[in-house]
Design a protein that fits this description.
Layout lengths: L5 H17 L6 H10 L7 H25 L5 H17 L21 H4 L1 H22 L4 H22 L5
Helix pairs in contact: 3-4, 3-7, 4-6, 6-7
């Protein structure tokens, strides 16, 4: 067996120390925020991309319902599927807003600090979305375009309720 020369081992030591330091886990919300602040190119927590995808999907399904209502003859199969998708995704939002994953922590997100400053209000806004999306599923199954149109207003109000207080207005 060949022994590595001592100078080679000494040269590799700093690299090994750096590698060991990089492999430590970041689990606490404060550590996540500190990590984000110290390294702007750091990968965002998975919850951010999951919630962005989920909310974008809700928006797409909401637009699909509105598009069907604007059509001469709405396809209630599309409306029902979209309503079900909205409700499913609204339920998936639970747990996708851990503290330390907002804009104030340096992440590329529209989530404002008010989410964690006013958690009861945020939970109520989420519950409103859940309630209105469940009602939309029921109304979508009736085949009544006027009733779906009224529920679109209520569901849109639930979305706006959250956007007004907990999301960066980037328009």
């Amino acid at each position: 067996m060949t022994k590595a020369p001592l100078p080679s081992l000494l040269a590799a030591a700093p690299f090994l120390v750096l590698l060991a330091a990089c492999s430590s886990e970041v689990t606490d919300a404060d550590e996540i925020a500190d990590f984000a602040d110290s390294d702007p190119s750091a990968a965002a927590p998975a919850e951010i991309s999951q919630r962005q995808d989920t909310l974008e999907g809700i928006g797409d399904s909401f637009k699909a319902i509105r598009g069907q209502l604007e059509a001469g003859t709405p396809d209630f199969t599309v409306i029902e599927a979209s309503a079900t998708d909205i409700n499913r995704r609204a339920n998936e939002l639970e747990g996708l807003f851990p503290e330390g994953t907002g804009r104030d922590a340096g992440w590329d997100t529209e989530a404002l600090a008010t989410i964690w400053e006013r958690p009861d209000e945020f939970a109520a806004a989420h519950q409103k979305l859940l309630d209105e999306s469940a009602t939309m599923m029921t109304v979508a199954g009736t085949g009544d375009a006027a009733a779906v149109g009224e529920q679109v207003k209520a569901l849109g109000g639930a979305c706006k309720n959250c956007h007004d207080d907990f999301r960066l207005d980037d328009d």
